[in-house]
Design brief:
With about 110 residues, the protein is mostly beta strands. The protein contains 1 helix and 8 strands. About 10% of the residues are buried. InterPro entries: Glyco_hydro_beta-prop_sf.
Length: about 110
């Protein structure tokens, strides 16, 4: 069971929802180091996609993925395409090492990774 807590910054509102089982339960996507972002009535989760095989004692994360939902309790998470690959964005990055990321909204409505 995964607990997801959502806090509205600048407000006393606190919403908590419980998700039972994995977000993508068909075994097609494994991820790590998720970060959440709430915009309006949509919850976004950004995470590295782990592509390591079952016998690999390491992670291989070539990209960051995004998932979103407007009703957490429904379990109807939408999968978004690959956001980016570390080596395409950061000159210092090594392929396969999409470490934990973070997304923040600026005051002008733009979002930054």
């Amino acid at each position: 069971m995964i607990g997801v807590s959502l806090v509205a910054i600048g407000s006393a509102t606190l919403a908590t929802a419980v998700v039972v089982g994995p977000l993508i339960g068909d075994g097609s996507v494994y991820s790590a180091a998720p970060v959440t972002l709430v915009v309006a009535h949509t919850v976004y989760i950004f995470a590295g996609r782990d592509e390591a095989g079952p016998t690999v004692n390491d992670f291989i994360m070539n990209e960051w993925r995004a998932f979103s939902v407007t009703d957490v309790e429904s379990g109807s998470w939408r999968r978004h395409r690959s956001l980016m690959r570390p080596e395409d964005v950061f000159s210092w990055a090594t392929p396969g090492r999409a470490y934990a990321g973070q997304v923040a909204e600026r005051g002008d409505g733009r979002f930054h990774w």
